[in-house]
């Protein structure tokens, strides 16, 4: 299904050739992937909703982020108060994070739930490359897996080897996605998108959605982590 969508979508941001209103960026009318993630605050009565929107060719076209607070009669809406320079947005995420994950697989893939203890390390090496190591130990089988990535950073964009990218946003948020979903489909490999919210300096939440090559959601993994 996804391969068909990717092959047919060739016109880009406006699928019928119509011009968008000036100074207004509109998503494709036939996107290949639209993924919504939502994380609720651990400290206040608010939430962040984030959207990954892939164009018909499988390239990230747009990121949308909404910071929302439950109505309390105040006229001033919540806002992202951390407008650091692009190159500084990585700093709160550096270091070692330990926590717990819970993965829920969809009914098509068995409707199972699994939990694990996790350790994520993100740091720059002596050559200025960004290095990420994520270790996960299953609570049921006690099996440990490790994922090691190296990457480079340019302004607010991190690009890891293999084509996975992170866009660093204000407010302790980053969004991760494959640079080219069509390549994953051609190689018959699954792919995932990630949403991270670091609401306070020592605690963060992450949500990862995994898709198969047909574009069907396979699983959702929720992480809650503390900095050590």
UniProtKB/TrEMBL annotation:
Signal peptide: none annotated. It comes from the Eukaryota. Residues 94-228 form the Biogenesis factor required for ATP synthase 1-like C-terminal domain. InterPro entries: BFA1-like_C, Calycin. Transmembrane segments: none annotated. Pfam families: BFA1_C (PF21053). This is Biogenesis factor required for ATP synthase 1-like C-terminal domain-containing protein.
């Amino acid at each position: 299904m996804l391969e068909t969508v990717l092959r047919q979508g060739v016109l880009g941001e406006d699928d019928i050739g119509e011009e968008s209103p000036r100074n207004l960026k509109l998503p494709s009318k036939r996107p290949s992937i639209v993924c919504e993630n939502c994380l609720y605050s651990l400290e206040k009565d608010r939430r962040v909703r984030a959207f990954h929107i892939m164009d018909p060719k499988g390239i990230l076209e747009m990121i949308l982020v909404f910071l929302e607070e439950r109505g309390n009669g105040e006229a001033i809406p919540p806002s992202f108060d951390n407008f650091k320079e692009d190159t500084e947005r990585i700093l709160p995420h550096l270091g070692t994070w330990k926590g717990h994950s819970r993965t829920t697989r969809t009914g098509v893939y068995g409707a199972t739930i699994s939990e694990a203890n996790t350790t994520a390390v993100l740091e720059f090496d002596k050559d200025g490359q960004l290095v990420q190591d994520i270790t996960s130990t299953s609570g049921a089988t006690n099996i440990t897996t490790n994922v090691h990535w190296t990457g480079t950073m340019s302004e607010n964009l991190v690009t890891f080897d293999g084509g996975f990218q992170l866009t660093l946003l204000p407010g302790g948020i980053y969004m991760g996605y494959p640079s080219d979903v069509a390549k994953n489909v051609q190689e018959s490999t699954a792919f995932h998108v990630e949403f991270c919210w670091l609401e306070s300096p020592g605690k963060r939440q992450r949500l990862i959605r995994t898709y198969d090559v047909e574009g069907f959601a396979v699983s959702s993994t929720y992480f809650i982590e503390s900095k050590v």
